[in-house]
Amino acid sequence: MKKHTATKSLFSLLILAVLSVLTHSPSLGISTGDTTEVAQDELSIFNSGIFTTANADSSNYLTIGGALRYNLYLEDYGGAIGEQDSEFTFDMWRINVEGRAEGININFEYRFYPTFGTHFIKQGWLGYNFSEQTNLQVGVTQVPFGLLQYASHNWWFQLPYYLGLEDDHDMGAKLTTSRGNWDFHLAYFMQADPNGIAEFAPQNTARYSYDIVPSQNQTNTETSQFNGRAVYNWQHGSNSNTELGASLQYGGIYNSELDEVSNHFAIAPHIDGTYRNVNIKAEYIYYNHNAQNDVGNTTDVVRMAAYGVAPYDVAAEGNMYVLGVSYSHDVDWGPISNLTFYNNYTYLDKSNETFTDSQHNVLGVMVTAGRLYTYFDIASGKNQPWLTDNFGQGLGAGVDDPRWNTRFNINIGYYF
């Protein structure tokens, strides 16, 4: 508890110090609401932050924002539905900081999950734009693999997220450049994202992204990972475009008990197409973790964790087939401006023939009302570790002849 309090106090002091320096800088003007006089086209949270300060041409700026989210759910995991199968919870609150000073960019997000008793950094990087086409990010940044930013349209993600292959963030450096219709990403990550604070599980489980963590007889961690990604974009008239891409990931798995490094790798061709109001995301992923346990034997599973909850088994090798379709429809219903309908599906074919495969499907709609985004999701899964009474069971050996477990989930989020 003392460490938790000290962390929050230090974070508050750092924010106050930054604000103090910036608000007393003669080169900056202050705006807490209307920022229409500032060039905002490239500032992703400039219009929504609760605090913004910038100089006249926005070459130096700082914006602070965040989000507040709640969850209401009803579960059907077999048997009679009881009182504990439904709950209204405080999902998450977060702080976002984005800025630029003397050509150096900063992007920072820190999250708090009261229900799980955990908090951690999602991303935190410093960057530099060499030109309009090329930039460098150093720190905790998104891994350039597969469909970006997400492989999903829903609040639940797609199944690759739960294996560390969707919206993964690690500690390293990433170079991005564009050449005509081509975009290229090259990255090196020395290690996974840093540990946060967890009240109910080991500290190495307090993280946003699923990573291999030391657990039981596998004292394994991720190290020295290389990523390459190339995509080709083309327009189909004014309202349609298609992105075709391919990604490669190769890195090490360090076993501290053996003091040895084995390897793991993944490949992923993908397509991301928007055709007027319809978006289609499709991806194939092959991955292989050549991990060892603490006595030097090759393992059929690796142990992964996130969100301050116990690690679970993941099949060491497999193929994933990912497909998502959405339809966006603008409306004029008071504060409601848009409805986005979607269905997202993933099939995990585990290479170990004695394991039972996993499936994941989310059918739903996102309702947009100003800064309020609400997801109505029917999330279903077979051998999905978050859709079961036995948390964590599913992505390893799995359960023979599993049923479709279902959770109706409403996530209400206000982003500022």
Describe the structure.
By secondary structure, this protein is mainly beta. It has a single domain (65-99, 112-117, 135-415), classed as Porin. It has one helix and 22 strands. The chain has one helix spanning 2-23; strands at residues 29-31, 51-54, 61-76, 86-101, 104-113, 118-129, 134-142, 169-179, 182-192, 197-198, 211-212, 220-235, 240-255, 260-275, 278-289, 301-305, 312-315, 317-333, 336-350, 358-369, 372-382, 405-415. The protein has a 16-stranded antiparallel beta barrel with strand order 3-4-5-6-7-8-9-12-13-14-15-18-19-20-21-22.
CATH homologous superfamily classification: Porin
Radius of gyration: 22 Å
Strand fraction: over 45%
| Element pattern in H and E | HEEEEEEEEEEEEEEEEEEEEEE
Strand tally? 22
CATH topology: Porin
- Look at the structure and give the mean pLDDT: 89
Measured between the Cα atoms of the first and last residue, the distance is 29 Å
Keywords:
disordered N terminus, mainly beta, three-stranded antiparallel β-sheet, 416 residues
SSE order and pairing:
Blueprint: H1 2-23, E1 29-31, E2 51-54, E3 61-76, E4 86-101, E5 104-113, E6 118-129, E7 134-142, E8 169-179, E9 182-192, E10 197-198, E11 211-212, E12 220-235, E13 240-255, E14 260-275, E15 278-289, E16 301-305, E17 312-315, E18 317-333, E19 336-350, E20 358-369, E21 372-382, E22 405-415
Antiparallel strand pairs: 1-2, 2-3, 3-4, 3-22, 4-5, 5-6, 6-7, 6-10, 7-8, 8-9, 9-12, 11-16, 12-13, 13-14, 14-15, 15-18, 16-17, 18-19, 19-20, 20-21, 21-22
